[in-house]
Amino acid sequence: MDVLRRTPGALTAMLEGLGACWVEGRYGEGTFHPFDVVGHLIHADQADWIPRVRWILEHGETAPFEPFDRYAMYEASRGKSMRRLLAEFASVREGRLAELAALNLSESQLDLYGQHPALGRVTMRQLLATWVAHDLNHIHQVAKAMAFQYEEAVGPWRGHLGVFPKADSN
Q: Contact at 8 Å (CB) between 100 and 57?
């Protein structure tokens, strides 16, 4: 919960008040830009993590979780500002962490199984660990998208910066 609690603030510090070139920049075809990432994290908090925790508690592995739409943010975020998305994310995350704390999950509950529609059998513990790793993955993705705005500008240092793909050695 310590990491999950920090994600909204980290993204706010990285993105609030920046222009479109920063929040709408991508690092490749078909990748999320920072605006997309924040919308995706909101949707994940609303539709994925805690609903799946509750699903495991109520249904175990008798039926798979509802599939998660990784792209629902495109419609849900349309017309919103980055500032609004960041505030919404902070609010949604605070509420979801309060729900998680109120569940006061025991060690035995963390070992309960659920059924992921694509991955199969998963534990509550794995689900919650994935929530944390998912946040960190998307913070990395935001940083990568932002760095790519300077991919050419860094000149010869490009090869020394791990955020950029390595040039082919052929």
A: no
> How far, in Å, CA of 44 to CA of 51, rounded?
10
Q: pLDDT tens digits, residue range 14-53?
A: 999 999 999 999 888 888 999 999 999 999 999 999 999 9
What is the third-level CATH fold of 2-160?
Four Helix Bundle (Hemerythrin (Met), subunit A) (1.20.120)
Q: Identify each DSSP E strand in the chain by its residue range.
A: 113-116, 120-123
- What is the rounded CA–CA span in Å between residue 98 and residue 92? 10
Where are the domains positioned within the chain? 2-160
Task: Say which amino acid occupies 122.
Answer: V
Give pLDDT tens digits for 125-164: 999 999 999 999 999 999 999 999 999 999 999 999 999 8
Q: Residue 113 has what pLDDT? A: 97
